[in-house]
TrEMBL record:
This is DNA-binding transcriptional regulator, LysR family. The keyword Manganese does not apply. It comes from the Bacteria. Keywords: DNA-binding, Transcription, Transcription regulation.
Amino acid sequence: MDLDLRKLRYFVAVAEHLNFGRAAEALHIAQPVLSRQIRALEAELKVQLFDRSSKGTVLTPSGEQLLADARPLLAQASALLRRVGAAGTFSVGFMPGLIITPAVRLLASRHPGLRVDVVRTTWTDQVDVIHDGRVDVGYVRLPVPVDGLGIAPLSTEPCVAVLPATHRLAGKESVRQADLAGERIVHHDSTPGIRSVEEKLEHVALHGGVTILPLSTAVFYSREDLVHVPVEDIAPNEVALAWAAHRHTPLIDDFISIARQV
């Protein structure tokens, strides 16, 4: 059985809105057309994807599984079309605080006619954008899951403790981990609801505590109510280039060479 990507896109729209009318508006199609496409998809898969009642529309367990699988599949299909239709482009992912302009500029100068795009990434999606093809190569902060990736180490930078400007350690030239004993360390793995750097910093500013960041990230997000202090005995953060191992190209090799020079 061949899956119809258009039907999958329609399904994802309904799953995200949980309302056929709003999903149809977002897709710019008539609601009866959308309903027919979803029924056709359910018939092809031989499962019910939605429970429809007067109380609303909800996903069935089969629908939840399809949604989890459909999103990355559609992202990969979109990336494939982008690569085929834009063979003269090269996309570079980067995290806030990392300066990539010299490398991007040099790559473009070496390859006249090549359009080099940059895509800002986050701690949570820096690897996802590589796997799903949104970028050809990405600057990542290690450690990351390396399965399916090629990795080229580039540099290291010190880590700092970011804390409120009124904190007892705010005036120190540097601290050690022992100085942070007893402090509440704000980290996305240990603090519910914290996903982004911005959320970490807001949490520290509002509720106190400390978060550990690479120096360039702390500088990029500098604000008056927070300060950063070097931590002497924390291992430096490693920055590397990463790419999908099965999509390794001469252009990626060229960019790796450039990134190591500048």
